[in-house]
Amino acid sequence: MDKETQLRLERGREYYANREYDKAEPYLLKVAESESGFADVMNMLGIIYHDRGQVSLAQEYFEKALRLNPRYTEAALNLSVAYNEQGMYAKAKTVHDHATDFSPRQDNDIEPYARGKLTNMHAELGHAYLDLQMFDNAIEQYQTALKLSPDFADIHTQLGQLYRDAGQQDQAVTVLETVKEKHPEYTPALISLGVTYFSKGDKKAAEKQWQSIIDRDPDNRTAGMYLRMVKQMLAQEEADAEGIHLEVDESSSKKTIQTPQEETSFSFEGEQAAVESVVPSFLSDKKD
């Protein structure tokens, strides 16, 4: 889950807990649109609409909650009430019976909602360890998160960046190449893969990676910024090898490097640090 969605979820739950339903609704709807796996969000929306007397709409959200988590007792009872109020007595009884007659859960039988929630909790704990520079603990938490939800591209990407920050460059490339293979359109992983190649000293591979993003999305500002930088560095290295002094326009270089914060703020943790670590070496190369 991205940070913006997490913030919306927290804000929506806070308003809901305070029974400020009109304020909670837009936040919860946004979460439901971007992250459809939260059964509790669907249930909260159902309760909001039921409170307004929109019973049919409430029913739809209670049904969505139960599709996500068939063991969600509260949502099942809420749906039973909604069916009763609309005269659907047979359906109400079926749902009620279902809610009160669950078979024992197996240890490895985790419903999607709970699985997703646990996954994000491990990822958040991993990020907390990362903030303290406790890399081994952070890696362990991200690995645990991915055991629960192996298809979460964002967490795979964060793990790859974590390996890179911990100095395990080869492992970082392996993880990010896997994301690229399984999710070829997932741009944050592709950008981060280029950063990792660059940090390994493989500027050609980095250039190829960022160029592939620009070929597909010419307006991607972060990939464009990195690509212009590495092209200038490669041109300088080639000129130095041939004994040619290559003049670099100061204003152009500064414009390329000093990018507004919002141009990289969408990227995952590590990308802004990459910009800051790359720029000094570029300036040093340029002045030689």
Chart the SSEs and their pairings.
Elements: H1 3-17, H2 21-34, H3 39-51, H4 55-68, H5 73-85, H6 89-99, H7 112-131, H8 135-148, H9 153-165, H10 169-182, H11 187-199, H12 203-216, H13 221-241, H14 250-257, H15 271-287
Helix pairs in contact: 1-2, 2-3, 3-4, 3-5, 4-5, 5-6, 7-8, 8-9, 9-10, 9-11, 10-11, 11-12, 12-13, 13-15
Q: Can you walk through the features of this model?
A:
There is one protein chain. By secondary structure, the protein is an all-alpha fold. The protein has two domains: 3-99, Tetratricopeptide repeat domain (Serine Threonine Protein Phosphatase 5, Tetratricopeptide repeat), CATH 1.25.40.10; 168-287, Serine Threonine Protein Phosphatase 5, Tetratricopeptide repeat (Alpha Horseshoe). 74% of the residues lie in helices and 0% in strands. The protein is built from 15 helices and no strands. Helix 4 (55-68) runs antiparallel to helix 5, helix 7 (112-131) packs antiparallel against helix 8 and helix 11 (187-199) runs antiparallel to helix 12 (203-216). It is elongated and about 85 Å long. The two termini are 44 Å apart. Residues 103-107 and 248-288 have low confidence and may be disordered.
Between the first and last Cα atoms, what is the distance in angstroms? 44 Å
Globally, the shape reads elongated
CATH architecture of the largest domain: Alpha Horseshoe
As a percent range, the share of helical residues equals over 70%
**Average pLDDT taken over every residue:** 80
CATH C-level label of the largest domain = Mainly Alpha
Order of helices and strands, N to C? HHHHHHHHHHHHHHH
CATH topology of the largest domain: Serine Threonine Protein Phosphatase 5, Tetratricopeptide repeat
Low-confidence stretches: 103-107, 248-288
Largest sheet: none
> What count of domains describes the coordinates?
2
Question: How many distinct helices?
Answer: 15
Radius of gyration: 25 Å
Strand content: under 5%
State the total count of DSSP E strands: 0
